Amino acid sequence: MLAVTGPNGAGKSSLLRLIAGLLRPSAGSVTLTGGDPELSIGEQAHYVGHQDALKASLTVAENLSFWASILGGAGKVEEALSRVGLGSLAPLPALHLSAGQRRRLSLARLLAIQRPIWLLDEPASSLDAPGGAMLAEITQMHVGGGGLILMAVHGATDIQASAELRLQGPSPNPRGTSRGQTP
Amino acid sequence: MTPLAALLLRDTRLALRIGGGAFIGVLFFLMLVMLVPFAIGPDLALLARIGPAILWLGALLASLLGLDRLLATDHEDGSFDLILMARTPLELAVAAKALAHWVTIGLPLVIAAPLLGILLNLGPRAIGSVALTLLAGTPALTYIGLIGAALTVALRRGGLLIAVLVLPLNIPVLIFGVTASNAAMTGPVPFGAPFGILCALSLMSIVLGPFAAAIALRQGLD
To answer: Which of A22, A50, A62 sits opposite B221 (nearest CB)?
Structure first.
């Protein structure tokens, strides 16, 4: 697990989006050693960003099972929802969720569909203390199962990262290359 | 469920639920066509003659409504990030979204057209031909509109710009749609020729629209 840290505007989010294939590098390339060569990095990764991609008029369960189908397969929707503590809210429209609950629903995507790489952009924002502990647990489980996590963090978290990539403030020549290695 | 079926189902659901806007197009169509007899006056022969053109114009303008939300909502809330990371080609994903848009905006227009034809004093033959040409032509309007929606996806208020981009491309569809409807009523052109071209326009835009839209969306990754 790699924690990406740095001041605001250092490029933490941009780095994660670049790896996910959502931004095009102006120079350099992103390569993954040991992944599925048939798939791009983005197709093997989960991305949880600031935008939660939830539709207010769909229910919690509908939102999650839609993303499970899009990201590949039926998924373990009910199990993932109860794991993040939203099991009882499944039939409620996402409109009524609080910011922390929306974040938990985004994180449930990680559990519903198995993908080896997790790209998490400040995943702990707006989570309460039990939510933070739940996040620490599921990330430990993923790393324990051989997964790879890149996480942009800002401030203190409960999560123990095995390495830290510190980005300096706005620089004229941002990083173009990053290497990920599946353990 | 396959990714494309899931996308189709979700977009249809969103359009039909509160705030989705599925019936805005057909309501606009109804208003426009209902006002025409009041504006033209009670000349039944004239109404019957221009009826197909009015129905086609109404459907063309109504199909522009909602195009600005077709891709923009997914762009704003980050859904596109996830669709890009799915293992489904973006071309097929936007084609599925456009199909959902046609089912919720275009198809109601086709269904409403025969009812509105009665308001314009159209005979059964004319009503049938207008409905048939709309059924063949509205997919072209949606899939050409998809290109405009993709080009303006990052703009906050892209609605009018979409209309400016898309309307010139829709003119051939309008011409052949109205020509085919009139041909069925009066001649002298046989119905088959313009109707065939209309079907060709639809098939072409169904194939080319998603590719053009996907290119435009990928260009937007900056």
So the answer is: A22
Compute the Cα dihedral for A37, A43, A48, A49 and give only its sign: positive
Cβ within 8 Å, pair B2-A69: yes
Q: What angle is formed at CA A45 by the lines to CA A43 and CA A46, rounded to 5 degrees?
A: 120
Question: Quick one: which of A171, A99, A97 has its CA closest to A128?
Answer: A99
Highest mean pLDDT among A10-19, A52-61, B144-153: B144-153
Is B67 buried (19+), middle (13-18) or exposed (0-12) by CB count in 10 A? buried
Domain that holds residue B151: 3-219
CATH 3.40.50.300 corresponds to the domain A2-181: yes
Query: Which chain B positions have a beta carbon within 8 Å of A58's beta carbon?
Result: 10, 13-14, 17
Q: Which tokens sit at B196?
A: 């065939």
CA–CA distance, A15 with A37 (Å, rounded to integer): 22
Q: How many domains does chain B have?
A: 1
Sole residue written with tokens 């939203």:
A86
Closest to B47 (Cα-Cα) out of B38, B56, B58:
B38
- pTM exceeds cut of 0.90: no
pLDDT, tens digit, 9 for 90 and up, residues A131-173: 888 888 888 888 888 888 888 887 666 677 777 788 876 655 5
Angle subtended by helix axes B124-151 and B44-64, to nearest 10: 20
Q: Please tell me whether residue B43 adopts helix, strand or coil conformation.
A: coil
Query: Is the CB of residue B108 less than 8 Å from the CB of residue B25?
Result: yes
Structure tokens at B8: 């189709």
What three-state secondary structure class fits A154?
coil
Which residues of chain A are at the B interface, by a Cβ-Cβ cutoff of 8 Å? 17, 20-24, 39, 42-43, 45-47, 49-58, 62, 65-67, 69-72, 74
Distance from C-alpha of B84 to C-alpha of B93, rounded to nearest angstrom = 9
